[in-house]
Amino acid sequence: MTKETSICSPQGNKDKWKILSAVMMGVIMGPIDGSIVNTVLPTIAKYFQTDYALVQWVPTIYLLAICSFILVYGRLGDMLGYKRIFLIGLACFASASLLCGLSRNIWMLIIFRAIQGLTVAMQMALGLAIVTTAFHPKERGKAIGIYATAIALGLMIGPVLGGVIAQYLNWRFVFFINVPIGAVAFFWGRRIIPAGERKPNQRLDMAGAALAFGFLFGIMFYANRGETLGWFSGWGLVLLLCAIGFGWLFFHVERKVEQPMLNLKIFSNRRFSFACLSSMLNFMGLYTVVFITPWYLADALQKDVFTIGMVMMSFALLTFFIGPLSGALSDRIGYRGLGIAGMLIHAAGLVLLSRLDTTADSLDVAWRLAVCGFGAGMFQSPINSAVMSSAPVEFRGIASSLLAVMRNTGMAFGIAVSGAVVYNLAPFTSRGQAGPFIGAQLDIFSNGLHWSFLTGALFSVLSATAVFLAKNDSSSSVGGGAG
User: Fold this and answer.
1) Do 79 and 169 share a structural domain?
2) Are residues 43 and 190 in the same domain?
3) Are 197 and 209 found together in one domain?
4) Which residues contact 378 (CB under 8 A, 6 or more apart)?
5) What is the CATH number of the domain that holds 98?
6) Do 100 and 228 reside in the same domain of the chain?
7) What would you report as the CA-atom Rg of the chain, rounded to the nearest whole angstrom?
8) What's the rounded Cα separation, in Å, for the pair 235 and 221?
9) Are residues 255 and 302 in the same domain?
10) Exposure of 359 by Cβ count < 10 A (0-12 exposed, 13-18 middle, 19+ buried)?
11) Distances in Å between the alpha carbon of 109 and those of 63, 118, 166, 189, 280?
């Protein structure tokens, strides 16, 4: 891995902010769509006259499809050029969204939702690679910080927009809204994103792609359906062992093929490896907040949907504003101090949330969420910059897709682990009993939430520890300041 000077052409330097805007416009649809659909699931279940267990596959299949193919898209981007794969994803995602909105039954919706996941993964896999390539290392943290606001903004407006659509429009508009946004993003990206280079004599490692699919699909399916199957039941353990087997075969094959889908040499860079690990642990802690807090607001504090959405916005708002500032600062002082401090602040916010009881009001929750959001915003941009800057130029697509895998895996396991803690301490919740709870059940439920928040705080501390261990290698690409 050689020291990087600049990979930006004069044209790239001149148009870098336009390139960033084009990528953000495409990337924002993923978090919007991931968060908006959950709001209208009860409406969809009622419309198609189906049970909640079946309609739950609408968000589940979307996440499974994203994670299962995201590494393949990263490799294809490195082979064929980032722009081509990114724009194909935009066009297909908009088309799949239209088909979702036109679905005549629940099975059609699930199938088209899977296609949505397969296509939005192309933007998720390559967005950071395009931004990293467009900006000089001295500006990369700032650019990635601004890029991160697209994700924060999408997560922030998705539930609110979903609530408005559910109340005033047909549920189908949740999907139709992607069509005009996707069309504008496609034509703007086609005009402004650099074409990139198609590398000669490259081929896709099909065995590696198949094994990566088996591994990622198995792990994500276990995380999403483990509670239903039983974490340590026969079927649950078979699924987990199959996923681990696919993972072992994947790494075994990738060590031997001439052109691996994932070149394992990239992990010899200590900064890259530990920064990726810290990102996954960060999202495990972050999604403990995202999953548990609305549950607490609804079933312990008996807040309505609108109030829950407004309270949860305090988290996204702080992340939205702090992310770009932290990214710009990392260009000057490096990533490690900001990353460690961010995760410790995030852990402190989770500890504060764990101390809430059933007499709290919305403001009590909101300012604690703001603490968590401040820490998350301080952490994410510098760490993303550290990962992308430490990856060799020829591996930026796979590095970008690896970050997306870490992010989505962290989300899934954060929800799974935090939920399992509550289900174990308050068993009636695992049997589908809905709140609001009163009396002894409320006390038991609150105790479960307490320990779940503390579990999230542990993930955040572990993430800070991984950042501390991510010391610069002397051979690392330079970017994002001194570590």
Assistant:
1) yes
2) yes
3) no
4) 322, 326, 338, 339, 341, 342, 345
5) 1.20.1250.20
6) no
7) 21
8) 12
9) no
10) exposed
11) 14, 14, 17, 28, 30
Examine the domain organization and report whether 221 and 163 are in the same domain.
no
Element (H, E) at 88: helix 82-101
For the cut 70, the answer to whether the pLDDT of residue 2 exceeds it is no
Domain shared by 233 and 96, yes or no: no
Number of domains, the chain:
3
Same domain flag for 312 and 406: yes
Of 260, 288, 305, the position where a domain reaches its end is 260
Q: Evaluate if pTM is beyond 0.85.
A: no
Q: At what angle do helices 336-354 and 305-333 cross, to 10 degrees?
A: 160
Answer for the pair 292, 457: CB distance below 8 angstroms, yes or no. Answer: no
Domain encompassing residue 191: 1-204
Q: Could you write out the three-class secondary structure of 54-79?
A: HHCHHHHHHHHHHHHHHHHHHHHHHH
- How far apart CA 349 and CA 369 sit, in angstroms, is 7
State pLDDT tens for residues 52-76: 667 778 887 888 888 888 888 888 8
By the 8 A CB rule, do 385 and 330 touch? yes
Q: What does the pLDDT look like over 374-413, one tens digit per residue?
A: 999 899 888 888 888 888 777 788 888 888 888 888 887 8
Q: CA–CA separation, 309 vs 441, rounded Å?
A: 25
DSSP 8-state secondary structure symbol assigned to residue 426 = S
Q: How far is CA 41 from the centre of its chain?
A: 20
Residue-wise pLDDT for 436-467, tens only, equals 667 778 888 888 889 999 999 999 999 999 99
The DSSP call for residue 196 is -
